[in-house]
Write a structure and sequence with these properties.
The chain is mainly α. The chain is 72% helix and 3% strand. Helix 3 crosses helix 5 and helix 5 packs across helix 7. The longest helix has 29 residues.
């Protein structure tokens, strides 16, 4: 829980400022609604926050030395946590699994809202899996655990976010406010 608080105190402001910087040209456009601009900013900010929480803090603290860890940890066996009791304890293990699911729910919602080409389940699934795989590979190279269970839970959470998007997509609010100018090209 301490890491979540630390990420909130350090990561949220950094991610929000970086997203403000990266989306400044987009925010000046007059052919987009304020909601559309806010959603794009939210996607960039949240994506940066996820990156910061998973690997960015290590990269900031250790720079290129982050890629010289004394050990590399990887788990390719799905759901091994069901069969084994980790040293962290059962409650901590469940907390980690739930955090991995919850972390990707906003991405699963924001990706199809902001990127019309990712509205189909398969394409959204591929983008979520690719994002999670990228994080897991980086974690392996910086000495943190790369785990297939994390990938599975991230994608499950992302698809939960996609289901929320699909539920809102056909509502009056979804059509008139959330997706109003999403059909335009980037």
């Amino acid at each position: 829980m301490g890491m979540v608080i630390g990420i909130s105190i350090i990561g949220v402001p950094i991610s929000c400022l970086a997203a403000w910087f990266f989306t400044r040209r987009y925010r000046k456009r007059t052919d987009r609604t304020k909601i559309r601009k806010l959603m794009i900013w939210g996607l960039v900010a949240y994506g940066l926050l996820v990156f910061f929480a998973t690997v960015g803090l290590d990269l900031i603290m250790f720079g290129p030395y982050a890629f010289l860890p004394p050990v590399h940890l990887v788990n390719f066996i799905p759901f091994v946590w069901i069969q084994e009791t980790y040293q962290m304890g059962f409650a901590r293990m469940i907390e980690q699994l739930l955090l991995n699911i919850a972390m990707f729910v906003p991405l699963g919602f924001l990706i199809p809202v902001c990127l019309p080409q990712c509205r189909k389940a398969g394409i959204c699934l591929i983008s979520l899996a690719g994002s999670s795989l990228f994080i897991e590979v980086l974690q392996y190279f910086i000495g943190r655990s790369a785990d297939i269970d994390d990938l599975i839970m991230n994608v499950a959470g992302g698809m939960l976010g996609w289901l929320i998007f699909k539920a809102l997509q056909n509502t009056k609010w979804g059509k008139e406010v959330l997706l109003k100018d999403n059909t335009d090209s980037f």
